[in-house]
Batch of 2 targets.
Target 1
Amino acid sequence: AQSVTQLGSHVSVSEGALVLLRCNYSSSVPPYLFWYVQYPNQGLQLLLKYTSAATLVKGINGFEAEFKKSETSFHLTKPSAHMSDAAEYFCAVSGTSNTGKLIFGQGTTLQVKP
Amino acid sequence: ETGVTQSPTHLIKTRGQQVTLRCSSQSGHNTVSWYQQALGQGPQFIFQYYREEENGRGNFPPRFSGLQFPNYSSELNVNALELDDSALYLCASSWEAGAGTDTQYFGPGTRLTVL
């Protein structure tokens, strides 16, 4: 079975500081990994995805994530936080079912302080 | 290109009632997946429809059912509503079912409140 664990339900950073959101996965097969962002009262928007090509994946809005098989991790980073980055972030895994269904973590709320 | 749309935006029902939620997939997509997102939780997979057939189901009871139409739009029906059904229901469309690498594009969701 596949699963995702997001460490830290709330992360607070100052504007301009490094953003690091942690995601660890469990999968019996090579996983496909995704980061989605959810702004208040909205659906999910894809930030980036890992599909077994380059291990460092660049996404939208300056975010990137690195796939580390040895650590079973796919942490999301951004060098400099912006106020508009405040949102809920979800890590998800897919790959073992015939549906490509996404299995999500519990989410991390990012707060950006001025 | 039109994105994924859902209706209604909000809905209030009472226990025991039935509800139908609707989703229009993104142009060119033939696969629709439905997710339930309880407050403070990550979305959970309900089921998927591919070319008008159910193509996989999560751990939800049979009172959750769905349809997909020839234009690939979809409905989610929930019978005998329970308080725990209160959640944000998200619809996502994609190009082809089963491609784990395929991006799922999400709609804005329908907020269901069961009283």
Target 2
Amino acid sequence: GAGVSQSPRYKVAKRGQDVALRCDPISGHVSLFWYQQALGQGPEFLTYFQNEAQLDKSGLPSDRFFAERPEGSVSTLKIQRTQKEDSAVYLCASTLGTPYTEAFFGQGTRLTVV
Amino acid sequence: SQQGEEDPQALSIQEGENATMNCSYKTSINNLQWYRQNSGRGLVHLILIRSNEREKHSGRLRVTLDTSKKSSSLLITASRAADTASYFCATDNQAGTALIFGKGTTLSVSS
């Protein structure tokens, strides 16, 4: 595709529900990142993939958060037993090579936990 | 945790004026990037400056980098209403596995 695509754009979940957020990076991009952005804040790093390998998951806030990229392209961020504090915009970004190059961002998924 | 800190947090100017935003970071870096985010949208890359560069230009944007002070500045000249957005600096983390963003500067340009 032309850019990074995320789905759904909006998700409302009841507390305790599991959710899955999808990211389609730009074709051929090696690196993929997930970020969490609270209102009025900068994006907070969650996790990083290089192809299918998850090289850094130090930003995942709890073991309820899980991310995968099994074939080195599409990635899914899963949040189990959602809590109200999980409400945020989840951004996905990809880069052609290493993390040191220009990152292309998707529009994000706005998750609201009620 | 966030590597970069932008200053000021908010900036309001008139069209035609210049806007300067600053970013400070904590550890050594390979490069520093600036991004713009319009309300409710994803981030858009503006410019990248490498650690061995001191200044870079792109259109109305001018970025400086002072690695001895661990700081960078973004200057937008002749601002327009369309420049209204949040601006973030981003650096790689020590492990080289992520881009870490600051909290951003919210710029408001009024006509």
